């Protein structure tokens, strides 16, 4: 699994959800087609009359998510860029997705504007596995943001966290260690540690 | 179609996407299970250790969306309320969704907190129809927010909008009229009206 494979999962699902934030700071969410995926870049389009267009041209931060039939979930949080060569990109998108002609026949396609996401962090989850598997990737050269729970050297080795973990993904040791690739981030270990040896990182 | 039917579509899809906004104003999006739908209310849960829990307990505005295999899309924008009788609701949720025991066995289920959405606006789209069909509903007693494009009395009856409409959903008249139930909100009519007789309402 890598960043490109995750983008390809979103392309294969095709109808994925795109969240944006409006000028009042409110979240919006709708299904948008992933039109092309190439070289660590994801392309989509939307019409200039839509609230979605209005939102992302004012605030480019978006959060994309999709789940496929194998229960693999991909989340991508990044920013969108509007592409300047509008007709070139819309024509490429329609060539790759001919069903678009049913919705926007003839020249009406040029009410659509093309966008690319070439940055941000991806979270991959395989919910079909037990314990679940998770991995994080970057679409760009930025440092991966660490999220979740970590056991510090204050650990007294009592094993409370290991007994509580619903995914059984904590290994005994000095200190005990959470297997990050399998953690749900549920927080049960964190809440029940008798010496507060577990810290939360990230948001 | 009505509000309850739309909630039932989300329950039938089950794995739908929930967008929230964090303290920095950034959008987040992930797949969450719709656990129960009853009497114009939608129930879900999440673990106290998750960023999602952190976000919605600080900012209850969320946007939910899902698309079923018949290409019916539902969007729900509202606010969440945390339910006080935590164990009662989590037990009800697990009874209705026994597969949850695989992820949170035994008492680990009580790291989850129950939430309800009983307010907000729903947008329904049937993308399998041509022209597409859309309808709006409220989950509460608030006034439906009108969105989209409307032709005013400034219309000169030239028919430019009707010729441009990709969904052919503009009827001739004095003034011409956009069939709101079939409109994509693409904005082509609005951009091309020679006398700016078309207005945009909503956001």
TrEMBL record, chains A, B:
Tell me if Cell membrane is a UniProt keyword of this record.
no
Q: Does the keyword Mitochondrion apply?
A: no
Pfam family example for this protein? PNPOx_N
Q: Which residues form the 4Fe-4S ferredoxin-type domain?
A: 146-171, 174-203
What domain of life is recorded for the organism? Bacteria
Query: Cross-referenced InterPro entries, in alphabetical order?
Result: 4Fe4S_Fe-S-bd (IPR017896), 4Fe4S_Fe_S_CS (IPR017900), Fe-S_Ferredoxin (IPR050572), Pyridox_Oxase_N (IPR011576), Split_barrel_FMN-bd (IPR012349)
UniProt keywords, alphabetically? 4Fe-4S, Iron, Iron-sulfur, Metal-binding
Q: Where are the transmembrane segments?
A: none
Q: What protein name applies here?
A: 4Fe-4S dicluster domain-containing protein
Q: What organism, scientifically named, is this protein from?
A: Absicoccus porci
